[in-house]
Design brief:
flat, alpha/beta, 4 domains, ten-stranded parallel β-sheet, Leucine-rich repeat, LRR (right-handed beta-alpha superhelix)
């Protein structure tokens, strides 16, 4: 049966008790009147508290415990933001963030990890004042904040040890990235960066080119036109450097910056419709250590995918066909799988006219995660093979309810994977109670933790009760728009989960035509 609600660990339980009785434990305040007086007079600022010499891990745990039960107030931050704290998470505005930022800049000079993501209300000038105080930062999450280009210049100057920087959905431009990488004297900075995230920003290929030319240790860079950037980088020279830096008003270094012959990038992402073969060639030459390739919407010929065979460490491959359906599974994808398949752990295929499940099974014996979406036809195959898909841990099938799916495909994918943890099926009409039960009787999937059924109209509450009776690790069940899973079924399941103390999150949306 699914996991039951368990008591917390002694450490967690202790911290929750402290969080619940924070005022009496830390300030010796026991009455409501004394509490209000302490806050009104700011008397709490004169109290050192019992945690002044606690290690950072304890302070972090107490901050998490307070956030779990209450809103972080000045009285909590005053006690818990101690000089030895090396990690702080104030994301989503979990309390008095302005006070927290003020105190942390005054006290926590050795802070190594700071997460202030989603704080859209914090003025850019306040953010600009933060960075010069934290020269020891190794991780900084600024996702969905009002981070501006000038702040990146400050990060480049003041955070030489920074390894991980998240700038997702911030208003930065190419100029900001150049200021991050190139100092006022033209010298390169931020040289320790290993991971840089710039999704949903105003960064273009020009800024991304400067980044890859400047940051020699960068391994993860999520710019989604990477092949264009790599092509530019191979033709890097003094004229290009002058053009790109002058374009954002940054001076040149006195020493010419050479074109790199090798990049340690492990992740390559492209969502551009126009991808040139010269860009793919540049990727294979500059990034031989790439382990993950994502190619979406590109109008490439099937044989162009053969370039990916040269990535000898490729373990994750995601291919989304263009609107013109220029990529064919047999002519393009299958030869790549035949070469790289023995190493592949993750595979995503979307928008193909046909897919050969047997071909994937034969080629990718170590596959752990597979997702297929908008596949017009899954080709039939011979006898089910017990040597295919034995390592699967996650399976997602996004289909149309009218699609003609073969029950044997589900048997092949699910019968021989005892370590399956995550299942998602959308629009799979052929998936019935009988078929699913037949599969689970052979392979109980004892490690199954997440199940999502979306527009799977042949599944009923009977099978879901069967799952709740079975030995597994279910923690999440999502039932979206399934015709035979009614409001009554949802009430039954909810009541049973509650009555039997199951630690399961149940989400249900009613079917609507």
């Amino acid at each position: 049966m699914p996991m039951r609600h368990q008591p917390p660990s002694l450490r967690k339980a202790t911290m929750l008790v402290i969080a619940n009785h924070f005022e009496s434990i830390c300030y010796g305040v026991h009455s409501t009147e004394d509490h209000y007086e302490m806050l009104a007079t700011d008397a709490y600022l004169d109290v050192e508290g019992p945690f002044a010499h606690m290690p950072s891990t304890v302070l972090e745990g107490l901050l998490d415990a307070v956030c779990e039960l209450r809103v972080l107030h000045k009285k909590h931050l005053h006690i818990l933001l101690q000089p030895q704290l090396d990690s702080l998470n104030l994301s989503f505005g979990m309390g008095d963030t302005l006070y927290g930022l003020k105190v942390v800049t005054q006290r926590c000079k050795n802070l190594k990890r700071l997460d202030i993501s989603y704080l859209r209300h914090i003025n850019p000038n306040i953010l600009l004042g933060l960075v010069p105080r934290f020269s020891s930062l190794v991780s900084l999450n600024l996702r969905m904040t009002l981070t501006v280009d000038q702040m990146l210049a400050s990060i480049g100057r003041n955070c030489p040890q920074l390894l991980d920087l998240n700038l997702t959905a911030t208003p930065i431009t190419d100029r900001g990235l150049v200021l991050l990488c190139v100092g006022e004297d033209g010298q390169r900075q931020a040289q320790s960066l290993v991971r840089l995230v710039v999704a949903e920003t105003f960064v273009t290929a020009a800024g991304a080119t400067i980044v890859l030319q400047s940051l020699a240790r960068l391994r993860e860079f999520d710019f989604d036109q990477i092949f264009e950037v790599l092509e530019r980088l191979e033709s890097w020279d003094a004229a290009m450097e002058k053009k790109l830096l002058h374009g954002v008003s940054v001076r040149l270094s006195e020493e010419a910056a050479p074109a790199p012959s090798y990049l340690p990038l492990t992740t390559l992402i492209s969502t551009a419709e126009q991808v040139r073969l010269s860009g793919l060639d540049a990727a294979t030459r500059l990034c031989p250590d790439a382990t993950s390739v994502t190619l979406a919407n590109a109008w490439l010929a099937s044989e162009d995918l053969y370039k990916f065979m040269l990535f000898e460490r490729l373990s994750s491959l995601s291919l989304t066909n263009s609107e013109g359906l220029t990529l064919d599974f047999h002519d393009g994808v299958l030869p790549v799988l035949a070469t790289c398949g023995p190493r592949l752990l993750n595979l995503i295929l979307a928008n193909f006219t046909s897919v050969d499940i047997a071909g994937i099974g034969r080629s990718c014996k170590k596959l752990r995660n597979i997702a297929m979406s908008n596949i017009a036809q899954y080709e039939s195959f011979g006898p089910i093979c017990n040597e295919w898909f034995t390592e699967l841990q996650a399976l997602e099938l996004w289909s149309d309810p009218q699609a003609d799916l073969n029950p044997n495909m589900f048997r092949q994918l699910l019968l021989f994977c005892p370590n399956m943890q995550n299942l998602l099926f959308k629009g799979c009409e052929v998936l019935t109670d009988k078929l699913f039960t037949e599969i689970t009787e052979v392979n109980p999937m004892k490690k199954l933790s997440h199940l999502t059924l979306d527009h799977c109209h042949a599944i009923t509450g009977d099978f879901l009760h069967h799952l709740l009776n079975s030995e597994n690790e279910l923690t999440v069940i999502r039932l979206w728009s399934c015709l035979n899973i009614t409001k009554y079924t949802n009430s039954e399941l909810s009541r049973r989960i509650c009555d039997e103390n199951m630690d399961v999150y149940l989400e249900w949306f009613q079917y609507e035509e």
